[in-house]
Amino acid sequence: MSKVYNFSAGPAVLPHEVLLEAQGEMLDWHGSGMSVMEMSHRGKEFMEIIHQAEQDLRSLMNIPSNYRVLFLQGGASMQFSMVPLNLLGDRASVDVVNTGHWSKLAIKEARRYAGVNVVASSEDRNFTYVPASETWQRDPQAAYLHFTSNETIGGVQFSTFPEPEGEIPLVCDMSSDFLSREIDVSRFGLIYAGAQKNIGPSGLTLVIVREDLLDRAQPQIPTMMSYRVHADADSMYNTPATYPIYIAGLVFKWLKAQGGVRAMEARNEEKAGLLYHAIEQSGGFYHCPVEVAFRSRMNVVFRLRDESLEEAFVAGARAAGLVQLKGHRAVGGMRASIYNAMPLEGVKALVSYMLEFARQHG
Ligand code: PMP
User: Fold this and answer.
1) Which residues bind L-glutamate (predicted)?
2) Is the CB of 77 under 6 A from ligand 1?
3) Cα–Cα distance list, 121 to 14, 84, 114, 155, 158 (Å)
4) What is the C-alpha to C-alpha distance for residues 302 and 289, in angstroms, rounded to an integer?
5) Is-catalytic flag, 254?
6) Do 240 and 306 fall within a single domain?
7) β-bridge mates for residue 295, sequence order
């Protein structure tokens, strides 16, 4: 078997133990005589799988009982439409923080349905920081405040979360740092995340929504876009993404066995710390454009002083079994995505490679 350390931003590395477990159960899930892929989503076996996955997620994140967990499809991108269609209510506009690529797409889509007030933007310094919340121009009449807790391409992460103001719910795209650090769900109105980074395979999108927000949808909303419809049907209005839900359930079980989100957070800080330290100690050979306070623990972006060496850096890394280090095509450079499932050894291997490459080319 050939095994590499996979630094892809998503779909991304999954815990090796989870893949082995899925392999062992591939043909016969718990004596059912069939694969999870072949099961009716309404049968008792799959019902057990989805209920257990929800229970485990609730305990991992301490999700209060007045929040619903929805297992949806359409990716985080579909939430860019579902959020305004469901939550605008009788308000005219929504507040949004613009910290980069994914914020901009959320803003673009929300503008189709609502007025969008950009309360703050870090575009002035090429999205390398999060504007201080005291400077945000918030609208007391906004339907909600939307932000992206971790910009997967820019490598910029909120270090603290905004305070909810009055009755205005906080809505967060947590796609790339979901389950990576402890959060207080009760401070949010709605959290969403595509699965393919910290949760499981692509094809599944998780939404955690406070119950009182389920009835603000526009009357013409397509049935499949309505949180109320999916909540009332326990995510079974239509056929859900059964296999990704099953794998997500295995990942949640794995996370619990690792010590839960608190243990993951400590490990994630250690991993990110090693990489940023290597960048800082390279005497300028490598550099990270993001301001120190907002450097992502999930997506570490960096460049070489001599950008003409970047192709050789990526090729050499690939030859050493360190794959998917090329930055997003929109920004170039390098990006190491080090989600929960990336082992410490993978990060150590990358750091050793970086030191050796700098020694050879510095
Ligand atoms: N938001 C963030 C922060 C993301 O990283 C991504 C995907 N990389 C998306 C939204 C879009 O997700 P999807 O491809 O699941 O629609």
Assistant:
1) 42
2) yes
3) 33, 20, 19, 15, 13
4) 7
5) no
6) no
7) 156
Task: Report in angstroms the alpha-carbon separations of 347 from 128, 163, 243, 338, 343.
Answer: 23, 34, 29, 8, 7
Task: Average the pLDDT over 108-132 and give the result.
Answer: 98
| Active-site choice (29, 102, 136, 254) | 102
Q: Would the CB of 333 count as within 6 Å of ligand 1?
A: no
Tell me, using a 6 A CB cutoff, whether residue 148 lines ligand 1. yes
Of 239, 257, 275, the last residue of a domain is: 257
Which atom of ligand 1 is least distant from the CA of 75? 15
In terms of residue numbers, what domain contains 349?
5-13+259-361
pLDDT computed for residue 1 by the predictor: 58
| Percent share of the chain, pLDDT over 90 | 96
What's the whole-number average pLDDT of the chain?
A: 97
Q: What is the mean pLDDT of residues 173-192?
A: 98
85 and 180: one domain? yes
The more confidently predicted of residues 197 and 1 is 197
117 and 238 inside one domain: yes
Report d(CA 311, CA 333) in Å as an integer.
9
Is 102 an active-site residue?
A: yes
Per-residue pLDDT averaged across 112-132, rounded? Answer: 97
Annotated active-site residue in 95, 139, 173, 177: 173
Average pLDDT over residues 182-208: 98
Residue 8 beta carbon below 6 angstroms from any ligand 1 atom:
no
Q: What is the pLDDT of residues 77-107, one digit of tens each?
A: 999 999 999 999 999 999 999 999 999 999 9
Active-site hit among 95, 139, 177, 197: 197
pTM: 0.98
Q: Is the CB of 337 under 6 A from ligand 1?
A: no
Ligand 1: centre distance to CA 159 (Å): 20
% of the chain surpassing 70 pLDDT = 99
Residue whose structure tokens are 């699965």 = 195
Greatest Cα-to-Cα distance within the chain, rounded to the nearest angstrom: 63
pLDDT-derived band at 3, boundaries 50, 70, 90: confident
Give yes or no: 124 in active site: no
